[in-house]
Amino acid sequence: MGKQVLKKRYQIQKPLGKNGGRRTLLARDLQTQELVAIKLLVCGADFQWDDLKLFEREAQTLQSLSHPAIPRYLDYFKFQTSKTKGFALVQSYIKAKSLEEWVKLGRTFNQAEIKQIAKALLEILMYLHTQHPPVIHRDIQPSNILLVNRSGNSVGQVYLVNFGSVQTLAATEGSTIRIVRTYGYMPPEQFDGQVVPTSDLYSLGATLIYLVTGMHPADLPQQDWRIQLKSKNYLDSAFVDWLKWMTEPDLNNRLTSAKQSFKLLKQLLLIEEIYSVTKNIGVSKIRINNYRDKLEFIFSDFSGLEKMLRYLCMGLLFIFIIVNFSVLKAGVFMIINVFNWLFYGKFFMSLLNGLIGIFIVSFSFLIIGGIIKLFPKSTRLRIDPYKISLNHLPPSPRRAIWKLEFSQYSDTDSCIRHNIQIRAGRQVYKLPTEALTEREVNWIVSEISNLLELIITKYGNDVKVMVSPKHLKFGGKLWISIGTYFFLGSLFLFMIATVIIFISAKTFDKTFGNFIELIFFLLKAVFC
Known about the structure:
Strand content: 15-25%
Number of domains: 4
Strand order of the largest sheet: 1-2-3-4-6-5
Largest sheet: 6 strands, antiparallel
Low-confidence stretches: 174-179, 276-283, 461-479, 506-512
Distance between the termini: 110 Å
CATH class of the largest domain: Mainly Alpha
Helix content: 40-55%
CATH topology of the largest domain: Transferase(Phosphotransferase), domain 1
Radius of gyration: 37 Å
Structural class: alpha+beta
Number of helices: 15
CATH superfamily of the largest domain: Transferase(Phosphotransferase) domain 1
Mean pLDDT: 75
């Protein structure tokens, strides 16, 4: 067409592409002097009225949309030249290469870049699918996604173009749908003429798989319509599972919406960011196992150098206990030796020995508790489709979960503290956050909120509160309690027994004395 002018306004610069009866031209708007893209539907030998319906629907859809990553509608008109006639759709011109062109040029994409592209496209789909009625693109593939302005760690600006196959959800009800055959990117339900918003998710997932493998999805092995994507060295398993979930052939098992897909992807991005922050300071104190509707957090009590130092201390204390085990035996012997006064009359000496023995045995239990406290422990929170559980706390049905509480406050030392609680019925599940960073805490709250679809209830922002000393936790608490209660209980019983025996000593006959002597002998034989 050379420098031909359409509608006395649009001067043709060069052709951009051709697909059947459709052509795309680069033109200059003589009024604004801006470059524009003109799509032409030519009334040739292969023209069909269904083509005109799709073309008009594309124009109407673009006219109703306003999104920075979608071409802007500018004009629509009929045209006729000396050689041809047809219809023209004018839209903003985006100077960029498609993903398909980039791959053919040899460009490869790493996992972070693929996630950025997926995030950008899901944002576009969330916009389209929340229109009234929802707009379904139906032809998402690498050739219809443009990428421009790559800089630094950013993959670049992503655009979704070519709305020639677009369909509104309302238009699909009670009508015959023309199948758009882009094999490999088209979901199975589209072969049967069924179109739903999640059909776009399948096409997007297949497009991302193309970026991962560099191969057309139709050329990849399949089993039961499922694309067999093998894990790559640079892909984490959670992202591979997400891609498989996006391209699930069964609508009932596929991700339910672009919003849900976006939330899960954000969690993957946040996990990647947290790991990049923590990888330079040792092993992270939190791990996550997340697959579809199951979620498991594992909180480590200690990490890295802390674990090494505590294991060293544990070893030294165990050696100390083994070497000084005779001290514990001496304490037991001193308690048993109290009854000697019945035979030798050394009441006050036996009383002193008994008190010292009680102290030695009780202190030994406290040392055992301290050693057990040094063992690095893990707290495990698990939420599956049926129940929620947290370590030793009794599980509760998942349907009983009704509240997610998050509080942030500062103690007297101006240290920021966090508190996360999940309420299920009357049961409260409190998560350990003392050893976590603020970034990790916010991520945990966000992920639980997304999974349970609960609004976060916040309390105590910037409130100054008194924080009591940390309680002793885990297995050590049991032995420390035993030591404390043994000391107090034994002391109380020892004093009562001493008074009773002192008052009644003169009335005991020789037979009872012999019986006490026998018990004393047996106790010494067992413990000493």
